[in-house]
Amino acid sequence: MTVVVTGGAGFIGSNFVFHMLDNHPDYRIVCVDKLTYAGNLSTLKDVMDNPNFRFVKADICDRDAVYALFREEKPDIIVNFAAESHVDRSIENPEVFLDTNIKGTAVLMDACREFGIKRYHQVSTDEVYGDLPLDRPDLFFTEETPLHTSSPYSSSKASADLLVQAYHRTYGLPVTISRCSNNYGPYHFPEKLIPLMIANALADKPLPVYGEGLNVRDWLYVEDHCRAIDLIIHNGRVGEVYNVGGHNEMRNIDIVKIICKALGKPESLITYVTDRKGHDMRYAIDPTKIHNELGWLPETKFADGIQKTINWYLENQDWWKEIISGEYQNYYEKMYGGRETVNVG
Ligand code: NAD
Ligand code: TYD
C-alpha cells in the first residue's frame, strides 16, 4: 500500500507520517510538501533514511509535479494535510489560502481521477462550522451543522470540503473528510497559541492573549487525531464526513495560566492585546459518529497531553529556536508590534 501524505513536514502531517510508519510497517509513505514557512525538513530527519519513506518537495498546486508523482508512485491513498493553516495570516493575506487550500485540493483530486485511487482523504477543520455562543454549552458541531465560516482560512477550508463532496457526487471519487478540533502536541509551529506561549514564557516575554482570553477551543492531542484519520482511511464510509474532537473545551486564558504554572512563570507575563478580527468564540465537537461507527475515542487526557507537550518543547529547544528567527521574526514584529495592549477587567 502506498500512501501519499501532503503537508507531511508540518505539525499534524509529520505526526501522521510517524504514526503510519510505526503502525503500518509494510506501507510506503510518500510525503509531498512545498516547505513553506510552516514546513520543516528537520522535523522528518529521523525517518529520512527509512526505506519505506520518501520525501518529495512539491507544491500541490503544481499540476505537472503532482501528475508526475502519481505516474511514478501509483498511490493507493492520498491524505491531504497540505494547507495554509494560520487564521491570523489569512486575515493579513487571504490569497495564498485560496491557492493552496482550494486549488491545491482540486489538483490532487484531478490527479486521483486521472490515475485512479482507492481513497482520497481531506483533512478539514471544525472551523468550517463557524462558532458557537459561549452561553449555550449544550450546543456542539455535528456533521449536519451548516457550514458558516468566519475567516479567510476557514472559508478556504470549507470551499475545499464542498469541492471534495462535489468530486464524489460528480465523478464518483472515493473520498472521506475529517473535521477536527484544535490539535496540540510536538512539532506545533511556534506561532500558534500553545507553543507560542511556551516559547515566550521560557524567554520571560509577554504572553499576548487576544481580547479577554475567553474564547473556547476543543483541544485534542495530535496523536489522537492521527489515529482517527488512520481509522477513517481504512474503515470509514466513502463519501462521509467525520467530526473528530475530544470534549475538551478550554478557555484560552486558562490554557495560558496552566502553561505559566507548569513552567514556574508569573501570570504577570500575561498581556491582553487587541482581539483578532472576526474572532470565533467557541468550538465544540460532537464526536458521536466516529465513536459509534469506528470505535474512536481520544486516549490522551488534556492534563497529560499538555505536560507531555511542555516537556517536548523543553527537550527540543533547538527545533523551535531555529524557527524563531528569520522570516518568523518579521512575522512576529508585524503581528504583535502593532497590537495594542488592552486593559481587561
Ligand atoms: P501546518 O501549517 O503546521 O503545516 C502545513 C504543511 O503544509 C507545511 O509543512 C507546509 O509546508 C505544507 N504546505 C503548505 N502549502 C503547501 C503547498 N501548496 N503544497 C505542498 N505543501 C504545502 O498545519 P497543521 O496545523 O499541521 O495542519 C495540517 C492540516 O490539518 C491543515 O489542512 C489544517 O487545515 C488541518 N487542521 C489543523 C488543525 C490544527 O489544530 N492545527 C485542526 C484541524 C484541522
Ligand atoms: P490558534 O492557535 O491560532 O488556533 P485557531 O485560531 O485556529 O483556533 O489560536 C487559538 C486561540 O488562541 C484563538 O482563540 C486565538 C488565541 N490566540 C491568542 O489569544 N494569542 C495568540 O498569540 C495566538 C496565536 C492565539
List the helices and strands and how they pair.
Blueprint: E1 2-6, H1 11-23, E2 28-33, E3 53-57, H2 63-73, E4 77-80, H3 87-92, H4 95-115, E5 119-125, H5 152-171, E6 175-180, E7 183-184, H6 193-202, E8 207-210, E9 216-218, E10 220-221, H7 222-235, E11 241-244, E12 249-251, H8 252-263, E13 270-273, H9 288-294, H10 302-315, H11 317-323, H12 327-337
Parallel strand pairs: 1-2, 1-4, 2-3, 4-5, 5-6, 6-11, 7-10, 8-13
Antiparallel strand pairs: 9-12
Helix pairs in contact: 1-7, 2-4, 4-5, 6-8
The structure holds nicotinamide-adenine-dinucleotide (NAD) and thymidine-5'-diphosphate (TYD).
The site of thymidine-5'-diphosphate has 12 residues, from α6 and β8.
Provide key terms for this protein.
345 residues, alpha/beta, Rossmann fold, 7-stranded parallel beta sheet, two-stranded parallel sheet, 12 helices, 42% helix, 16% strand, binds nicotinamide-adenine-dinucleotide, binds thymidine-5'-diphosphate
Structural class: alpha/beta
Order of adjacent strands in the largest pleated sheet: 3-2-1-4-5-6-11
State the low-pLDDT regions, or none. none
CATH architecture of the domain at 2-184 and 220-245 and 284-300 and 328-342: 3-Layer(aba) Sandwich
Q: What is the CATH top level name of the domain at 2-184 and 220-245 and 284-300 and 328-342?
A: Alpha Beta
Give the CATH superfamily of the domain at 2-184 and 220-245 and 284-300 and 328-342. NAD(P)-binding Rossmann-like Domain
The name CATH uses for the topology of the domain at 2-184 and 220-245 and 284-300 and 328-342 is Rossmann fold
Order of helices and strands: EHEEHEHHEHEEHEEEHEEHEHHHH
Computed Rg: 19 Å
Number of helices: 12
Beta strands, count: 13
| Main sheet summary | 7 strands, parallel
> What fraction strand?
15-25%
Categorize the overall geometry. globular
